[in-house]
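Key idea: predict the complex, not the pieces.
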Amino acid sequence: MNLGTRAILYTARKWRKTLLLFCLLLSITTLVLSGLAISDAQEEQAEELRGTTGTSFTVSRNTATGGWGNGGNGSYSTQEYLTSDMMEKIVAVDGIEGYNASIRTILCLSDVNGQWLEQLEPTGHSMVDCQFYSYSCINSEYHSLFLSGALEMCDGEMLDLSFDNGIIISKEIADKHGLHVGDTIQAVNDPFSNDKTKELKIVGLFEVVADKTDERNNYNEASYYDYANNAFVSETTMKALLENYEDVGYASADFFVNDPEQLEGIIQQVQKITSINWNNFIITANDEVYERVSSSISDTGTLITTLIVVITVVSMVLIILILSMSIRSRKKEMGILLAVGIEKPAVILQYTIETLLIAVAAFPLAYLSSKQFAGMLGTLFGKTAENVIVTTQHFTLVATLGTILLIAAVLISCIPAMRLKPKEILSQME
Amino acid sequence: MDLLKRVCLYLVRKKGKTATLLAFLLVMATLVLTCFSIQSATITANTNIKKALLGYFTINAKHLDTGITESVLNQILSIDGLSGNYILRSYYYANYYDTDGKLLEISTEGAAQTPAEYENAGKIVASSNSENDSYFTEGGFKLTEGKAITSENGNAVLIHEKFAERNGLTIGDTIQLSDVTDKNRVTDVTVAGIFTSTKEQDAIGTAPSCDLYDNIVFTDLATASYLLYGTEDETNIQFGDFHVNDPEELDHIMEQVQEINGVDWNSCTLTRYDKDYQNAKKSLEGLQNIVFIAIAVVSAICFLVLALFMTLRLRSRIHETGIYLAMGISKGAVLLQYLLEVFIVAAIALLLSYGASAAISNQIGSRLLSQVTAETYETVDLTQNAETAKQPTEDLGLSEIIVEISATDYVIVWAFGLMICLVSTALAAYPIMKMKPKNILSQMS
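Result:
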């Protein structure tokens, strides 16, 4: 009878034992596969979590290296402004999710008939009461007032470059004047000059969440305007409204990154853009939130990784223990095989083939079961496990290492028995 | 031969088998215990993340006649769930005098207007720590001389360097502040520091003279309280920012605050600030779920493997069982013997596993610790033109992550471990026990 037949016959005839070994191998492989998938999912989730910290860097013009000019309103910097071209080059760097830059001005808003729109709490001076603190936006989603949660959109859409003449105003102002998303209003920078009046379509309304009466905010021009008297305007329109003024441009722009861990690298990439004269601009990293949470996030990562390492090591130990136990109980059989003249290597090979026969069935099944298992356990306790995905790489890794480990385990378990002569083995058994 | 003796003899004589079983149980128990300790450590890590996302609420009591009094403040601070980090703030306007009662000069350059009665007045900013005030953290103010004002200072002020220059003031000089509306409230204050503004005020042309950077004076809360409310021994405040441990609890804590008696909460504005947490909430939950799933998978499979192993082990003892039965030992006694063997080994394994998993947990703990130390020394070098964001110096009061086995977890592992041993042995023994001794023995030969 040849070796292969013997191995198959043993496996089939001792089917209960085979089944048990199969179940054990299946469970342990499932454990390791799930562990690997969980480890990957954790990394992914941690990256997502890092991404929610709103980490950005600001490119602003360096007034220290630029010249100064004198105008009607005191001195002003003559340093070059950020151009759309520069910003597009920066945003093209990998890992940047979006950006925003604003031009701020005070616009007088009126309805389509030229009737001035009154502020929320008018002072009684009609030329002051129609003034709204306005920002032009490249993408209003990234405007600090929306990011900080001071304002929240309640109707319509955020403004971005796809709108040529859009405006976002507060819900309170819209309610006061019976305006809705889709209505048209007019804006002018200085009604007593030859500044153009432009028509704007309301694309969205925001709600005020923050408490503007909190005096902590009182240090800049914007703070003299109630949040409800703020407005966000399309870039194109803003440029047209301010075409009579020279010192208009982007003094700074905020670029938001996907993964704060990459921030440093991204900034270095940005600084390599040669078409921008970096002598004229400063880059500032804004990653305070990330800095605060990063150590705790990486703690969780370390803990999970350790867990997976422990699982893997334990699984290896378990497999060796189980196989050695199963082979140790076959000492007598081994003696008989040796006694009938079958060589030691052939016996070992037979055992190895038997084990591998079980593994061949257990490994692919473990791949399938681990795909289900984590998800099932998750849903059982009402927790989502969408990220826990067993990949073919995981499987290949586990199958390869598992096979090597199994062979090694069989060899190790056979050592004590193999050292004895058939006679010794058989006499020991009597 | 009695049962117990048989058990002991079996364990001692079958050394190899006993050792394998012991090793197996030990490994399993250690794995599950380590799992539990890791899980409780990740809970701490998660709590730390939530805490570090800084959820807080602000009470604006500007419209109350007495502000927030000390007793109300103490009641707020005694609410469970506050992290202990809080900032108290008051704002007011005051006239500036020197010690002789002579009015000091303020800057009016760039002011939209100088309101009547405010010709020598400026904005007073009082905070529990002037360093944390938004003028310093965001507005570009920098202290050039002296020390920041904290709640421990009394009757101290920080003044702008231009204001100091204009009025010939230096650190240690005394000036007088008086309430703009009620001239009776006058207090002497000492100049404790001089600051400068690094950014240009963009409200030039919009702001009244008293709001100009040059005319702002920072002081302590007690001084502001006296000017605002005329309090002598008590410090009342206008604004308070209270940080909470878990931003999830913010609503609940704010409700509790509003249940405090003796305050007209309708005149106050309570605002929640937890945008960072709201942004991170979903991902954070995802991360928690993954940890949970990891622990669940490991525990479930461990018990499964344990049960299978016990079955495998018992099956190799069919022959022995037949002999026992043939000798007239009752089935119950045989089963009991098997159970006792397993229990004795399991007990030893569980005892040893405590030490083993404690050692592993220690290792993990020190790894986390070394990570923290490594981070402290890490400097972010963004080269030439880039400025590094200032490191958060504030103490977030994060809990240290301790990886250790809690007594409850240990008890749970004991209970489940022994139960699994019992059930799996009983189940594995069931088919054997069902057979007659004769059948068993004939099957074997």
